[in-house]
Amino acid sequence: MYDSLPFHARIRDLLSLNRGATLTSLFATLLWASACLAQAPAPPSASAQVKLKEALSLPAPQREKVLKAHLSALEYYVTQEQGTERPFQNRYWDNKEPGLYVDVISGVPLFSSAHKYRSGTGWPSFDRALSAELVREVKDTAHGMVRVEVVSASSGAHLGHVFEDGPATTGRRYCMNSAALRFVPLAELKAQGYEEWIERAGLQKAPTGTSHSEQKSQPTP
After folding, report:
1. For a disulfide at 91, which of 145, 167, 178, 179, Cβ 3.0-4.6 Å?
2. Residues 6 or more apart from 182 whose CB is under 8 A from it?
3. Tens digits of per-residue pLDDT, 27-43?
4. pLDDT tens across 104-157, in order?
5. Structural domains in the chain, sorted by start
């Protein structure tokens, strides 16, 4: 179960000594935040996936309650609070298996291992989305930077950011958070209802997700 107080609110309390917080509570919050960012939780179970999909048709208050109940703290922080997980400490940054990367909430396919490459950043990086209709790109001016946020069109979840420093294939780098994705191996696509995507995602010709050369890029997702 995700903590009832949003991640950003907990951090705000940590930084605001004039709110009357004790040193003990501030230390506890710091430990909680560190643990939240460091964890690389397993993706939602099959039963949780059903609940998450159903939640998308619910009014906002009920939807938020279901998301908090069935997403990990990190998954909620990333997808609902535009957070960023730690590099090199997430579940898919070095995943080389062939398969699809789907929205952790809606289950809609977003990225393919055939388009995944080693960016050297510590986050899963792709040179393209499966389709432009599956993601939305939004100008992001948070944290004193100008970036392009990538949002799932099906669930509204924050996925990461896209940069124009990718490989020669497209020149783009979709720097995603593993916590916003669920990986479905090629061998399980048919059983999970994704058979039609095998050819569309280029998986028959791409046995691994390491077809592109390593790129040294620094901006975070």
Report:
1. 178
2. 43, 44, 49, 101, 102, 103, 104, 107
3. 665 555 555 555 567 88
4. 999 999 999 999 999 999 999 999 999 999 999 999 999 899 999 999 999 999
5. 7-81 (no CATH), 99-200 (2.170.150.20)
* Rounded Cα–Cα distance for residues 48 and 64 (Å): 14
Q: Average per-residue pLDDT in the chain?
A: 85
Please count the other Cβ atoms lying within 10 Å of the Cβ belonging to residue 1: 9
Active-site annotation, residues: 175
**pLDDT tens readout for residues 161-214:** 999 999 999 999 999 999 999 999 999 999 999 999 999 999 985 444 444 545
CB atoms within 10 A of CB 82: 17
Beta strand ranges found along the chain (DSSP E): 99-103, 109-112, 116-117, 125-126, 135-140, 147-152, 158-163, 173-176, 181-185
Q: What whole-number percentage of the chain has pLDDT above 70? A: 75
Task: Extract long-range pairs of 172-175: CB within 8 Å, 24+ residues apart.
Answer: 172/127, 172/128, 173/119, 173/125, 173/126, 173/127, 173/215, 173/217, 174/111, 174/125, 174/126, 174/127, 174/128, 174/129, 174/150, 175/119, 175/121, 175/123, 175/125, 175/217, 175/219, 175/220, 175/221
